[in-house]
Design the sequence.
């Protein structure tokens, strides 16, 4: 039965981010801890281009913007979005003709709610979006747009201070007259007006915004990083500083020749890079963490029930995958308890990974048997869960592939091996072997699994089977038990006990 067939289809919610450089429609499906985006379209219009000099929105962009907004309203309606809202940022709030533009939009589309955000509201929404992907975020958040830079002090998952500065990439270029050297001074002076940025010393700098995501993609392309996902991509301070320095000094032709460079942002990239360099200096951050979440996800997060927002995002992602692809919702908790005997001294983060692994262990059950391992691997590695860092993705993907008996030398596993250290690879191999044995014994049912147990005694791995429970130590069970014992460096044994 399809997911949600009993309760009806999940709700759809649409938000239009009306920015200084681009206008974007995002349609979300459902109210889950990990947002499911089913539509995402952007139009680069440059509404805020020239605003610094004229005090007005770009006249050439107003007509196209109204046309695009008409399309976005039609798309949202056609897709059945129950909630639709336009949130307008720096260009609309700062331009002298911003109110007239918004009124024209309301006249043309009277059923479309439009909200002009203050700088503080924009910063707080960005913070909510980042915290959806990084629940315990601790450091400084920087969200760069075309017109402004929002900065937020995040203290272990709470936003405690926020400010908005007029150094978005487009506005900074206009203020500096296209002069990079002058732009450096302007950014430095504006950042100096926010003394609490110094609290970023030795902490993380969370980066939000299309221009900075473009920097991450450039670095991924240039270094051959094995996972092309910007969200949770991390650079050391020195790496981020060097990357920004190269981009800030590059002319348009040089930028265009760089792998991963965004064709539509070439003119803005040097100024976004200048802001990053100066922000690194002002905060003293130890590393940069890129976030694909921002204002739009923050808007979405405020619609979530409190209980959903407080869920662990990695476990929530596992639950979602199990609900969609698994066969028995009672099996994952049973697997978690069953494998516990093998990992008695694990740290809390390791236990959470093991629990998530148990939730996703059956997601290949409906796939073609010849491709289950590979299909499940990529389904996990590339899932849209916003709370999973790259290490977690790689670990979970490797576990589920090995649970489906992937060849340990299969090329598709290379991505995970490159992202994990040897100890994590070993742990994934052990857990994958344990889950493979569990499914061989139980047929994927908690009832049969209850007739078995594992325990480690001295140098032995003992498998206990309850007589008459429907399980027995056949050839396939013995083979998988031997493989698990070998992974643990133990001697296998089987005990059959009376009921």
Sequence:
């Amino acid at each position: 039965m399809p997911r949600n067939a009993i309760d009806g289809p999940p709700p759809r919610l649409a938000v239009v981010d009306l920015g200084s450089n681009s206008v974007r429609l995002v349609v979300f499906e459902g109210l889950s801890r990990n947002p499911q985006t089913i539509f995402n379209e952007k139009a680069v219009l440059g509404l805020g281009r020239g605003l610094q000099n004229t005090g007005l929105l770009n006249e050439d962009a107003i007509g196209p913007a109204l046309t695009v907004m008409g399309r976005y309203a039609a798309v949202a309606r056609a897709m059945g979005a129950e909630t639709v809202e336009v949130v307008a940022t720096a260009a609309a709030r700062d331009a002298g003709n911003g109110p007239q533009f918004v009124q024209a939009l309301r006249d043309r589309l009277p059923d479309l709610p439009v909200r002009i955000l203050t700088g503080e509201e924009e910063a707080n929404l960005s913070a909510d979006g980042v915290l959806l992907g990084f629940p315990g975020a601790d450091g400084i958040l920087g969200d760069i747009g075309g017109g402004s830079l929002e900065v937020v002090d995040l203290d272990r998952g709470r936003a405690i201070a926020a400010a908005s500065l007029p150094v978005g990439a487009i506005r900074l270029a206009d203020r500096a007259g296209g002069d990079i050297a002058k732009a450096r001074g302007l950014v430095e002076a504006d950042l100096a007006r926010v003394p609490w940025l110094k609290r970023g010393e030795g902490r993380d700098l969370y980066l939000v915004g299309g221009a900075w995501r473009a920097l991450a993609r450039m670095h991924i392309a240039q270094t051959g990083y094995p996972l092309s996902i910007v969200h949770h991509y991390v650079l050391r301070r020195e790496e981020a500083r060097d990357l920004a320095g190269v981009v800030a000094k590059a002319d348009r032709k040089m930028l265009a020749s760089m792998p991963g460079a965004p064709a539509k942002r070439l003119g803005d990239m040097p100024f976004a890079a200048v802001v990053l360099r100066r922000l690194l200096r002002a905060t003293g951050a130890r590393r940069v963490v890129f976030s694909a979440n921002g204002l739009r996800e923050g808007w979405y997060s405020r619609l979530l029930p409190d209980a959903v927002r407080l869920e662990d995002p990695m476990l929530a992602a596992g639950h979602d995958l199990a609900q969609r692809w698994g066969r028995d919702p009672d099996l994952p908790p049973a697997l978690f308890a069953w494998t516990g005997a093998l990992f008695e001294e694990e740290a809390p983060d390791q236990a959470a990974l093991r629990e998530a692994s148990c939730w996703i262990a059956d997601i290949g059950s409906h796939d073609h048997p010849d491709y289950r391992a590979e299909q499940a691997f990529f389904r996990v590695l590339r899932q849209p869960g916003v709370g999973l860092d790259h290490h977690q993705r790689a670990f979970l993907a490797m576990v589920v592939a090995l649970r489906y008996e992937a060849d340990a030398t299969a090329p598709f596993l290379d991505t995970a091996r490159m992202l994990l250290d040897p100890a994590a690879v070993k742990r994934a191999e052990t857990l994958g072997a344990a889950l493979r044995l569990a499914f061989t014994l139980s047929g994927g049912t908690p009832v049969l699994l209850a007739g078995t147990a594992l325990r480690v005694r001295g140098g032995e791995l003992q498998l206990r089977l309850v007589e008459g429970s429907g399980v027995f130590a056949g050839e396939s069970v013995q083979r998988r038990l031997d493989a698990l014992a070998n992974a643990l460096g133990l001697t296998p044994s089987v005990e059959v006990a009376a009921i």
Q: What stands out?
A: The first helix runs from residue 51 to 54. Residues 12-117 form a domain with the Nucleotidyltransferase; domain 5 fold (CATH 3.30.420.40). The two ends are 36 Å apart (CA to CA). Confidence is low (pLDDT under 50) at residues 1-6.
